[in-house]
Structure formats: C-alpha cells, structure tokens
Amino acid sequence: MEKKEFDKGKVAGLNTSIDYSEGAIVSRTILNKETGSVTLFAFDKGQSLSEHTAPFDALVQVLDGTGVILIDKKPFEVKKDEFIIMPANIPHAVEARERFKMLLTMIKSK
Predict the structure, then answer these.
(1) Residues 70 and 36: beta-carbon distance below 8 Å
(2) What angle do CA 23, 29, 34 make, to 5 degrees?
(3) Per-residue confidence (pLDDT) for residue 4, from 0 to 100
(4) What pLDDT is attached to residue 50?
(5) pLDDT digits (tens, 9 = 90+) for 13-61
(6) Taking a C-beta distance cutoff of 8 angstroms, is the pair 91, 73 a contact?
(7) What is the pLDDT of residue 1?
(8) Which domains are delineated in the chain?
(9) Cystine design at 58: which of 4, 28, 67, 86 (Cβ 3.0–4.6 Å)?
C-alpha cells in the first residue's frame, strides 16, 4: 500500500516515488500547503490533462521521458531534465506522446 505522505527528514527518489500505470495518469502529492503544492505525475503514453487555467504560475520539471505542454494552444516539447513555467491564467494542457514523469510545483502568490 502506497503511503499518503512522505517522511520528513528522509531522502527519497523522485523517479522511484511514483510508478507508471497502463492507460492511466498517476499522481502523488509530495507537499500540499496553503502557500502551494508539489506533485509527482506519471503519464502513460496517450494520456493527457485537458486544457485548463490556474490562478498561479506553475513549474513543470520532466523527470523521465518527454512530454508536450500546450500553453495557449502552442506546443512545447519538454524532455528529461528540462522544465517549463506555465503562466497564470493562460490556458494550458499536458499530453503524453510517450510515457513520462513530471514534477509540478505551484507556489501561490497574491
């Protein structure tokens, strides 16, 4: 059974903390605070998050594979060890043309 929260003060691996699931998107929250959140995602090939907006900038770091981030319908291919910032209040979406893992960091600001 997967733990809901990570142990504080213990080393953990990003890629080993989440597994792929056939035909699905798996997510695991690392931190969820009033000031923001950090979430791991594992996308199977062909999976996507539909277009939406968020009230805050969001940082996407690709940990494994290659993902496509659409910002205002413009595609950006982001590979392992690369990142992109999705700007607040601009429509964005995520597509997995192959399996990939990403870390999403959202810091809430006024």
Answers:
(1) no
(2) 140
(3) 63
(4) 96
(5) 999 999 999 999 999 999 999 999 999 999 999 999 999 999 999 999 9
(6) yes
(7) 42
(8) 15-107 (2.60.120.10)
(9) 86
